[in-house]
Amino acid sequence: MMPYKLITQATGPLGSSSSRSEYALFKSLNEDELQQLTEVSKLKVLSQKQHLLTQSSSATHVFNIASGIALIERISMNGRRQVLAFIFPGDFVGLTQSDRYEYGVKALTDATAYAFRKPEFRGLTETIPQLKKNIADIGANVLGHALDQVFILGQKKAEERLCFLFVQLLERMPEATAESIQLPMTRQDIADYLGLTVETVSRALAKLKSDKLIAIPTPQKITIIDLDKVSELGDIE
Amino acid sequence: MMPYKLITQATGPLGSSSSRSEYALFKSLNEDELQQLTEVSKLKVLSQKQHLLTQSSSATHVFNIASGIALIERISMNGRRQVLAFIFPGDFVGLTQSDRYEYGVKALTDATAYAFRKPEFRGLTETIPQLKKNIADIGANVLGHALDQVFILGQKKAEERLCFLFVQLLERMPEATAESIQLPMTRQDIADYLGLTVETVSRALAKLKSDKLIAIPTPQKITIIDLDKVSELGDIE
DNA sequence: CGATGCTTTGAATCTCGTCAAGATGTGTGG
DNA sequence: CCACACATCTTGACGAGATTCAAAGCATCG
Q1: Can you tell me the mean pLDDT for A59-76?
Q2: Residues 127-186, chain B: which have Cβ under 7 A from strand D?
Q3: What gap in Å lies between CA B202 and CA B213, rounded to an integer?
Q4: A216 CA → D18 C1’, Å
């Protein structure tokens, strides 16, 4: 019935390889509880650019990203698009205020996610207190992230915003190191995340490169040369 | 952080007159439960420009605004200031992720608030399930507000941002009508909320005025002349 | 290959920020 | 009551930063 095994620390179907997150859905759950979750989950496989869920569609499930990278986006009537976050293995998405998703989630790479039907999931949050707590922690974390983004968009220049992104990726993306950060998202995605245009993103990257703060071996890969300065520029404190 | 709408139906020590909120801390609580809350609350009286709580101070209380208007602000090391929200009677503030407030709350007018010591408040959330649910709802609402702000800051121009503020004030400020919106905050507060400078705010107001979308009888009072256009410009959908 | 999509670069334009000055308003002390 | 200081708001001139429009470079994929 369960072709997969539950692991929380290491890479696994429900837990995740994303290591640096203190806000994990499955944190501090015992074997039995994990088992209960596994039983109501269903694996969803996505290829690049496919949607895990679409804005305005009926909010029937919540999801836990198992592998791959995705983004959360919100598109307004007049077509303007805001990327709200990039998400990684172990991240949890799908909660809404209403009965429809207020945002879309699109895979940037091939990806897999475990889907939980809402009623069943909600039931488990009632019977497993720790799970409810984890959800609350995740919510607080999401809010913290949103406030960080508010700060950046309200206060920072293009190059600083890019540095903020780099710092975030270093903290959250599984395989990212200062030596090599793979960028699975397009320049347009970055622009829509940071409230800029593609051209400005490209130029700001060129400037950071010419200032020797970063290198850009290929368009999809950057190296942080001066981590101190990049951190300083990207800092929100 | 952000507006935690909290209101009972009637005006009283815990709730108050602000009407338009669906996210009430005291929603669906019975008399006895309200009584328990009242017993652990303590009135705090503030005059204009005083702080209800200060950033980085020990997070000992949560608060329910009873009267007056305040703002939530976050100031970074390098002195840059971001206003996160304007809050009104019935709003709830003081929840944090850490043991210190990550933001400050400053009164824009003379104001009063009911204070709850955290341990006691937390105790009540355990014994009153509906209270816990209300807190969760409020959190979701706060997140929604933060995401709106992200959208505005990422996508909109100065005049549109101002219209967004007007729409928000119309929705949330107790006595605000299209005919008359009192602005208890300074231009600097508005600028720091919308990610602009005072000068840009002043000029954008002048432009909206010359375009006959609004009138500015006094610097602290505006009138919406063309509500449709203002709503359209300020809309985030 | 040619077609398509993504990225970069260039030039003109626009928006907003910065610096500076003046206007308006409020509160205080003489 | 007036005069003065102080804070807030507005307006102007200028410059920096970002967007827009346009074109060209580079990949990948049929």
Answers
A1: 96
A2: 186
A3: 15
A4: 22
